């Protein structure tokens, strides 16, 4: 298993746990014994490590029970295990009929390890094939990360997964179908873009995206803010998986009409990229315009490069999916100066990748002096909001029903996957050593925007 130093999470060790196998019989009721088979690494995994102490991401997959973790790494205050999205094989099951059984696969939030883990689950009575992790140690984890889906036994994905596992157990270097890797890399990050576009930016009945139950009463999210009609949407970190999925959904939304016959989506979708990713961003074809974040937008730049006329009252929506080198703050400051009150909205989704101490993280999330008491308002008009995908999904489900929200997201992702991302390719690795190399690449910043790292374990 991979073990990280929580305070310096790019410091990793692959730790053997020989005492864990052979596994004892699974005795706990309503449980699955899961072994990670397919996972991916993106900058989101770095976020899970950086903010893990704040939102309990370290709790998802704790260090193994006393006596199994080597003494040098059994201090849970210092060491932990980061998680990733992907497919796990069910090694054993005590779930009732209708739930996954031995030999099946599930998709969800998994440990970076070949060591199996026992997790208690409750079947979703409203949405067949969905289940929720209920183990006590995961009680403080947001529902989004406790949600899993079963892979239908007769599906192409199940057949491909079974074949890959069988070949690997035979000692082969396996050529896994790229579609499986695409699922691991994009599925949950695409859902963020889907939920933001469909529910958060529903001008008729917007769903609040903020973190926690108090967010709707403390952070304004109005119909005016949610209205994308005629707006220019600017995405920072446009090569990120979240941004690519969102750009796809925004363009799809533009093709639809509002009930009054007006355009349902933004006038244009702009990718504001760093020089290292700009060529790939253009190649995807998902953005109407691609510009460089090295430039500071002024009125002339906006009109010439983006077609935005702030003097005529054009609306700009800046969505920060993790822009680097302070791009979010710089561009927001420029837009706030240029745009009339109510004609600029900033949405925070991702954070800049890198290694940050807990103290630095807390400082970043603390309100700045100029923002205290203003709730991110410009002349009394709110302009900023932070998205929490899990809370957005839960509020969307409360509005439209869980079955509708999940089925719509699955259908939208299936369409996105069929069309694919031009220029993008899955880069496969096999085994925990390959995972460690991938984590090192994230730490050094040597990943390529046109590549996604997926692994067979």
From TrEMBL:
Superkingdom per UniProt: Eukaryota
Annotated protein name in UniProt: Uncharacterized protein
InterPro entries, A to Z: DUF2855
Annotated Pfam families: DUF2855
């Amino acid at each position: 298993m991979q073990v990280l130093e929580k305070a310096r999470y790019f410091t990793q060790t692959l730790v053997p746990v020989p005492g864990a196998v052979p596994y004892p019989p699974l005795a706990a009721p309503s449980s699955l014994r899961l072994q990670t088979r397919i996972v991916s690494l993106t900058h989101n995994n770095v976020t899970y490590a950086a903010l893990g102490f704040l939102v309990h991401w370290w709790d998802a997959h704790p260090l193994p029970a006393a006596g199994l973790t080597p003494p040098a790494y059994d201090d849970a205050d210092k060491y932990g295990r980061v998680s990733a999205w992907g497919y796990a094989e069910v090694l054993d099951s005590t779930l009732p009929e209708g739930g996954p059984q031995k030999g099946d696969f599930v998709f969800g939030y998994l440990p970076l390890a070949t060591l199996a883990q026992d997790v208690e689950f409750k079947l979703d009575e409203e949405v067949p094939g969905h289940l929720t992790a209920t183990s006590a140690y995961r009680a403080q984890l947001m529902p989004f990360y406790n949600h899993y889906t079963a892979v239908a036994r007769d599906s192409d994905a199940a057949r491909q997964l079974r074949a890959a596992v069988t070949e690997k157990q035979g000692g082969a270097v396996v050529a896994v179908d790229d579609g499986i890797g695409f699922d691991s890399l994009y599925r949950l990050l695409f859902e963020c873009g889907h939920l933001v576009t469909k529910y958060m930016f529903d001008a008729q009945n917007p769903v609040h995206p903020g973190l926690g139950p108090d967010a709707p009463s403390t952070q304004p999210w109005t119909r005016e803010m949610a209205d994308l009609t005629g707006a220019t949407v600017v995405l920072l970190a446009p090569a990120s998986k979240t941004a690519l999925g969102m750009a796809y959904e925004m363009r799809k939304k533009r093709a639809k009409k509002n009930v009054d016959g007006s355009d349902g989506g933004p006038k244009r979708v702009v990718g504001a990229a760093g020089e290292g990713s700009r060529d790939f961003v253009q190649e995807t074809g998902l953005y109407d315009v691609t510009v460089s974040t090295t430039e500071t937008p002024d009125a002339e730049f906006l009109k010439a490069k983006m077609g935005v006329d702030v003097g005529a009252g054009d609306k700009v929506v800046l969505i920060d999916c993790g822009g680097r080198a302070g791009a979010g703050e710089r561009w927001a400051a420029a837009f706030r100066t240029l745009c009339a009150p109510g004609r600029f909205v900033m949405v925070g989704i991702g954070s800049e990748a890198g290694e940050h101490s807990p103290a630095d993280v807390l400082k970043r999330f603390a309100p700045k002096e100029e923002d205290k008491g203003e709730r991110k308002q410009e002349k009394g008009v709110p302009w900023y909001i932070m998205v929490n995908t899990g809370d957005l999904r839960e509020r969307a489900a409360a509005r439209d029903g869980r079955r509708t929200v999940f089925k719509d997201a699955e259908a939208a992702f299936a369409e996105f996957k069929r069309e694919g991302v031009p220029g993008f390719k899955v880069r496969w690795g096999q085994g925990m050593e390959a995972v460690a190399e991938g984590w090192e690449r994230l730490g050094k910043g040597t990943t390529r925007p046109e590549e996604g790292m997926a692994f067979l374990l």
